[in-house]
Amino acid sequence: MACSGWGRQYWKCDEKDGPYRILYKIHPDLSYNQRLIESAMEEIEKHSRIKFEERYNQRCYLQFTKDDGCFFEGVSNCSLRISLGMGCTDFGTVLHELMHAIGFEHEHNRPDRDDYLIIHQKNIDPGN
């Protein structure tokens, strides 16, 4: 079963039992980091029911590119992109961006964040 990108959940899967296949393509500019990217995917596979598989001619997939910066971007309903530009090619950064691609967000974006965060106004520099 394959998962296709859609909306805020990013991936829609056809079956509950998994494993959920996420198709991907690594741009040739990142070929020297292919093993690093695969290691991060293997880490997610080890702890989930997700299986990353190389895309051949399918329309919907996750693409790894080498643009300016480190980021995940939902380009359209079925084309998602992870940019791994200069300084972005360490294991932690690749794993971080992959986590965004499978639907994880930063903790400060959680709807219940105010229940757990305390902002100490006196510690904020007034010049910023």
UniProtKB/TrEMBL annotation:
Transmembrane domains' residue ranges: none
Keyword annotations from UniProtKB, A to Z: Hydrolase, Metal-binding, Metalloprotease, Protease, Zinc
Top enzyme category: hydrolase
Residue ranges of every copy of the Peptidase M12A domain listed in the record: 1-128
Positions of Zn(2+) binding: 96, 100, 106
InterPro entries named in the record: MetalloPept_cat_dom_sf, Peptidase_M12A, Peptidase_Metallo
Pfam families: Astacin (PF01400)
Coiled-coil stretches noted in the UniProt entry, renumbered to this chain: none
This protein's record includes keyword Methyltransferase: no
Annotated EC: 3.4.24.-
Gene3D superfamilies membership: Collagenase (Catalytic Domain)
Biological processes annotated in GO: proteolysis
Oligomeric and partner information: Monomer.
Annotated protein name in UniProt: Metalloendopeptidase
Species annotation: Trichonephila inaurata madagascariensis
